[in-house]
UniProtKB/TrEMBL annotation:
Xref: SUPFAM superfamilies: MFS general substrate transporter
Native source species: Erpetoichthys calabaricus
InterPro entries assigned: MFS, MFS_dom, MFS_sugar_transport-like, MFS_trans_sf
Transmembrane segments: 51-75, 87-110, 117-136, 175-200, 285-304, 343-364, 458-478
Protein name, UniProt field: SVOP-like
Residues of the Major facilitator superfamily (MFS) profile domain: 53-483
Amino acid sequence: MFQKQNKDEQLVSAIHLEEFDQETKKSPSPEDKTYTIEEAVETIGFGRFHILLFLIMGSTSIVEATEIMLLAVVSPAIRCEWRLSDWQVALVTTMVFLGFMVCSFISGFVADRYGRWKVVFGCFIWGLYFSLLTSFSPSYGWFVFLRVMVGTGVSGHSQGFVLKTEFMPAKYRSSLLPLATIFWLIGSLLVIVLAFAIIPSFGWRWLIRISTIPSIILIVLFKFIPESARYNVSAGNTKEAVKTLEHIAKMNRSSLPEGRLVEPIVERRGHFLDLMDSTYRRTTLIMWYSWVVTSFSYYGAILASSELLERKLLCVTNADHPPKVLNSDSAPCYCHMFGTSEYYTMLISTLGEIAFVPVNILMLNVFGRRFCLALSMALTGVFFLLLNICTTSAGFTALLFILRSLVSANFNTVYIYTAEVYPTSIRSVGMGACTACSRLGGMIAPFIAQVLISKSVITALCPFAIACLACVAAALFLPIETKNRALQQTS
């Protein structure tokens, strides 16, 4: 009897011990749990930090738009002051984009190796310094050189978009990132309004000086934005990444997942040749072409509209040369300053950049990135050709309004797709390479939109239309759709 009781007790103890082991296996201690950087970002969710991030890093577009739009509104003034010919005016924009193109590769490499925040901050300091120096240019040669230096600084602004993307939860990227167009719009409108108020009374030099104020404000505000947690994890600085994520969670009144952050350290970061890996080769080549066309069409629309207004070429297929003033070298030079009506048309058309944003967001969420890029490119090509039709001033403004909406939608889509398709290890160098290629389009556009257009309007508009229509086919062949796709840490 006694032995039977002992056996029963041993059997009960064994059963309890087995149940305890199973419970232990089912409920591991918090120290044994792990989570990834993607899980941390999604768990924290969207909150006050992301609003601050959106406002500060989005405002980098104000500065970039300011520097780019200055080229359009200052061109008539420097043409008159230094008696410049068509090719000299076009060369200013081309050289700015040359500096932009060269340093975009460098900024992408440095951002993947040493951090996104450092590149954005350093480039802002650089751009501000040389932008101020530009206002003291004693000659055309100095003006070109100093604007090239400004272009090298602006090249790093795209890393702000990468930084913003890496902190954003997946479901908010396609909605919030296109809204950054608002900041670009603010910068463009700011320059046009300031040019209207300042150039007639104080000249273009004071316009440039006053337009640097947003840069000064942003440099102070950058201290509120941390380095990318995704970058820190890939670089092996997990402790700093966790500290950043805890700060974000506290601001958002949220919490991190239980456990510890675990991600593999990526030793190979920022290598250009990784963009040509078999996984990304086709994507890279198509996106390079897409960025070239996006920039070519965007700046073509801005510069062509500026030239059509300045030279009064509306509703003219083969424009006769307007009256010219000769400079000291006997080279022809056309001098005509913008009037109230020209500034008004530029303001209305610039507002077009925000008009299609709600539609763009809806299309990106429903149909994905590839289809949206193909559709907006097709419509862009059509509306470039429509600029040549004879219409009223209001009709031209309407066409320009829609065209600016479409070229802005193109930029929104390629920016989002590029930031989403590449892994963290090559995201910045991928963005840098793409923005560098885009400046090739920006370098070509002035000679079409500012030089060729004075010979024949339709001949100048056709290259923009053809390039956009060719990009439609390219976009449809992109192998990866990034809609609702998590950001990759490694390839």
